[in-house]
Amino acid sequence: MLVRSLSLAIALLAAASAAALGQTRDDAIATPVLRANVTVSGDLVRIGDVIDNAGPSAGIAIYRAPDLGMTGTLPVDRVLTALRAHQVIGVDTRDLREISVTRLARTLEGKDIELAVARALERRNGLGDAANLGLTFDRDAGDVRLDAANSGALHPASVRYDARNGRFDVTLEISNDGGAAPVKLRFAGTVIETVEAAVLARGVERNEVLKASDVVIERRPKAEVGNDAARRDRAVGMQARRQLRAGQALRLADLAKPDLVQRDQSVTLTYQAAGLYLTIRGKALESGTEGDVVNVLNLQSKRTISGVVTGRGQVSITVATPRLPDTSDATSAIGAAPVAVAAANANTPVSPKAE
């Protein structure tokens, strides 16, 4: 009985050992399978990149990877030849004729590089905000591709700027996830500070009033415009003090309020006081905008009088006396005929005379 039990135990142990050994052998000889699409992050393509179940040969390099961010193709027969050279055989090709290999990369766009350089120069040696800096690079700052491991932010490692000639030399640094040395990118060129300026779309003559279609917005060098650059909303509706050419950036000194009264223009003279309002036609002897004092010829009396421009074609006459005006004041101020004054006074109520 004891012998039978011992024999049964030995048989069970042997069966278990055989099953474990068979499983190990199956794992060891699992069929390598070719991949149709391969993605690598380094500059080499390894056996473990192109096939599954590569085993101990996975780390062996067999090809150089495509350029950063690029995709290439490999014929399957060439791949199999490279694998056989390293004793990798029996590969399941899944009837593929070629495989594609893509190298991962990080792309830095030119606009991001320009912004990083502008931020490095911001407020340095008298420069303004980064948004107002115009950069010209010695070499094209186009898109730059880096190894995918370089995932850090762009940081200025060194910055040099010469305010005398506007030259800059900036080195940007990008850290590496793998612990390798940071990548450094160097850019040189010139920088100027710009401002938004109202620019003439056409030439205008002296005293011409600017319309909305006459003015556009452009960025111009601050040194060209100066500190009195006119904004578009301040330029439209204003009058040119002098002849201005197309493409010229407008300054506040170039503009004035539009003349509401033109020389030799027919105007309305008004005189108003308590209980009295007189109007008469006149001829402006000079131009003026709102608030200007101009000389006007009274067409009825042929006298020259002064008044303040109050509106388009409107001139108000005032007297230099603080007391309430009477008929003689009005007549003297506006030079009106007595009949006009009498007409105004006819509207003033008269108390009955006591008997």
Keywords:
355 residues; alpha+beta; Type Iii Antifreeze Protein Isoform Hplc 12; 3 domains; 5-stranded antiparallel beta sheet; 8 helices; 33% strand; Flagellar basal body P-ring formation protein FlgA
Task: Describe the structure in your own words.
With 355 residues, the protein is of the alpha+beta class. It folds into 3 domains: 33-103, no CATH class; 105-258, Type Iii Antifreeze Protein Isoform Hplc 12; 266-345, SH3 type barrels. The protein contains 8 helices and 21 strands. It has helices at residues 2-28, 47-50, 76-84, 110-121, 222-225, 232-235, 327-334, 338-345; strands spanning 33-34, 37-40, 44-46, 51-52, 61-64, 71-75, 98-103, 105-108, 133-137, 144-147, 155-162, 167-174, 183-200, 215-221, 239-240, 255-256, 266-273, 276-284, 293-298, 304-311, 314-316. Strands 9, 11, 12, 13 and 14 form a 5-stranded antiparallel sheet that branches. The protein has a 5-stranded mixed beta barrel with strand order 17-18-19-20-21. Strands 2-7-6 form a 3-stranded mixed sheet. The protein starts with a helix and ends in a 10-residue tail after the last helix. Mean pLDDT is 82; it is low at 1-27 and 336-355.
Q: Which CATH class of the largest domain applies here?
A: Alpha Beta
Give the full name of the CATH homologous superfamily of the largest domain.
Answer: Antifreeze-like/N-acetylneuraminic acid synthase C-terminal domain
- Report the radius of gyration as a whole number of Å: 46 Å
Rough shape? rod-shaped
CATH topology of the largest domain: Type Iii Antifreeze Protein Isoform Hplc 12
- Give me the strand/helix succession: HEEEHEEEHEEHEEEEEEHHEEEEEEEHH
Report low-confidence residues grouped into runs of 5 or more.
Answer: 1-27, 336-355
Most strands sheet: 5 strands, antiparallel
Question: How much of the residues is beta strand, in percent?
Answer: 25-35%
Residue-averaged pLDDT: 82
